[in-house]
Amino acid sequence: MSTIHAFTFGDPEPVLAGQIMDNLGVWLLDNGRYYQTPVPLRGLARLLRANAYHGPILEFKVNMVMRGFQTSPALTRRAMHAAVTDYAVFANAYFQKVHNFYGEVIGLRHLPAINMRRMSEADRYCLLSSTGQVVPFEPGEVVHLKNYDVSQEVYGLPAYLGAVQSMLLNEDATLFRRRYYLNGAHMGYIFYASAAGLAQEDSDRIRTAIQGAKGIGNFRNMYLHIPNGREKDVQILPVGDFSTKDDLEKIKNISRDDIIAAHRIPPAMASIIPTNTAGFGDITKTDAIYAKNEVQPVREILLEVNDHLPPGFRVGFAQEDAAQAGN
């Protein structure tokens, strides 16, 4: 009795592998010491590498906010840049107050938002270390900057969460095309042989040849000869095809547009190549309007750190940059 052999090739793995969607929408939880975040922050961090648009757009928005930043003895540019990045990705930014010998605040130290949690006590935070330990801070020692979320008031929540599915779809479309090229059998067919003259050892050699067509050199041809063979003794039966350019291009473009819309960034500033001859208009005017409507409100939230600093240690942004944005 003959035996049918079936096998599949391994596939490239997506960045998130569905992990962020497992917990997306979880309500605020209290484990007795600190509040859990509404969404898994490590999933949001991994999402930065899911496609070619989301991560670079957030980096661009951080650079726009940091343009014209004026440092002070209390807060370095590097610390503010890290905090702005946290705010762009997680909608939360944290600083630790630095005191002098007299107990006066003389500086702010950036704290990584991905490991920060609000404790059960009012105005108290803790840091989750890499070893799993909880490092608590004193009441009022941490400055927490966040946007407003209508479902809870403990943490901020990014506005781009509505485009998570489009971000993952964009990644899946790319991985699907990669599977098409990396799979030596070129996804989507069944090699069917019904010839009576095909011995078991011949079947084994054919299977080995198909398996060996994976990776480099996977476009090699295969020679097969069956003595006294009949028509349709060997057939290639396609089961699916995603090789056409239009299917991939439509999915990539639609998901890309969703990502850009979620970030509220003009296409010209997202490095999108225009498909029309007119282009995207005057980039200078686009930059000014974007700075006025999107960048300036974020700066106003970040400048709340000055409420915790003495007058001589406050930070700001260059006035000429703000004036240009208002034109």
Question: How does the helix and strand content classify structurally?
Answer: alpha+beta
List the secondary-structure elements in sequence, H or E.
HHHEHEEEEEEHEHEHHEH
Known CATH architecture of the domain at 24-169: 3-Layer(aba) Sandwich
Given the C-alpha coordinates, what overall shape results? Answer: elongated
> What is the end-to-end distance?
83 Å
Query: What would the average pLDDT be, to the nearest integer?
Result: 80
CATH topology of the domain at 24-169: Cytidine Deaminase, domain 2
Give the uncertain stretches in residue-range form. Answer: 23-29
Instruction: Work out the radius of gyration.
Output: 28 Å
CATH class of the domain at 24-169: Alpha Beta
Helix content: 25-40%
Q: How many strands in all?
A: 10
Identify the strand order in the major beta sheet.
3-2-7
Count up the helices: 9
- Sheet of most strands: 3 strands, antiparallel
How are the SSEs ordered, and which strands pair?
Layout: H1 19-23, H2 41-47, H3 54-66, E1 69-70, H4 77-90, E2 92-99, E3 105-111, E4 116-118, E5 125-128, E6 134-136, E7 142-146, H5 164-182, E8 189-193, H6 200-211, E9 234-238, H7 245-263, H8 283-302, E10 316-317, H9 319-326
Antiparallel strand pairs: 1-10, 2-3, 2-7, 4-5, 5-6, 8-9
Helix pairs in contact: 3-4, 5-7, 8-9
